[in-house]
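Handoff note, outgoing to incoming analyst
You'll be picking up this chain. Sequence as last confirmed:
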Amino acid sequence: MVIGIDASRANEREKTGTEWYSWHLLRVLVPLLGEHRVRLYTREPLEPILRQLGPPVEERVLRWPPGVLWSHLRLSWELLWSPPDVLLITADTVPLIHPRRTYTTIHDVAFERFPALYAQHSVQRRLGWLRPVIHLAVRIVTLGRYSASELDYHRWSVRHALRASRKILTVSEFTKSELVSLLGAGPEQVVVTSQGVSQPASFVTVDEHQIQTILARLGLSRPYFLFLGRLEAKKNIELLVHGYVEYRRQAARPVNLVLVGNPGQGWAGVGAWLHQAKRRQGIYQLGWQSPNDLRVLQKGASGFVFLSQYEGFGRPPLESLSARVPVLASRTAALPEVLGSCALYVDQLDPSHVARGLARLAEDEPLRASLVRCGLQRVQQFTWEETARRTVAVLLSA
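Most recent structure output, in case you need it:
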């Protein structure tokens, strides 16, 4: 049997949430499919690790000079002329042409709960003067239901995935319940495969010398709280900054705040303020970091802060627990399901409550030790091997 997998996200150079999910899943999933032929579709030649997953792997590089609508046009064309028996899409976007046995991972539906947090600009910003033409064309074809905005693209993609997929894979019971209640998915159509996390042993090799070397290169010093994720309104980044500023005004020996991630929707105002005041306020914005540097930053942190308004899973705080770093989190969406009792929860809408939480995370040593012990037990429940096994069971169920 030929199993096709969209590996384009896993092959991105600067990986974030869904890209890392795809990358980790493929590394464990492909060896489990050894008796079947695996065909990986990608825009560019696969990175070495993905290319060396095993002899049954066939690489299909689908070059597409326009760059836009790769899934719906270029991948569809490939699937029309050479369809696999089974197709796995690891993040929402099902090609217009696809085999009957198509399976899709949907990570969250935040755009349904918080549409204001998503950009209204066109998803195809590179098209220049063609953008309004495409916008009008989409309006006409969809009888006014959708535009070419990022928000509408998310809305259409997930609904198309629900119609086109034999089964939907998702990463938490929370997201499954959202798909059922908000989009009318049948409970039997949605299978929770969860996600994995780096286990504590993977952080053992990070020593003090590495931490000091990388902190010096980045212009940082300890202690610091760490935030990892896109700097956007959905992650509640503005309230995090205001809560931290209030904490810093009250703390005798304040801990710095390090923000790691690329800017997103809703960051412009916060970024302009930080440009003027970040060093005076102890806030450092680093942008995207390489996996090795990020692992060192996680290990060296005094605490991890994650006040997201909506998460389908929430791997960054779970990774920090694996690195023996206590976590401050919002009690929203899937985070309580994933973190259990192993995080200090705060009201993510109240800067004063956030400030008090940061103070406890910095100063309450018994609490810190308790959270770390709990976290080391918690992360053992989340492995990529288990995620891959659940995924294989779905792909081969028919």
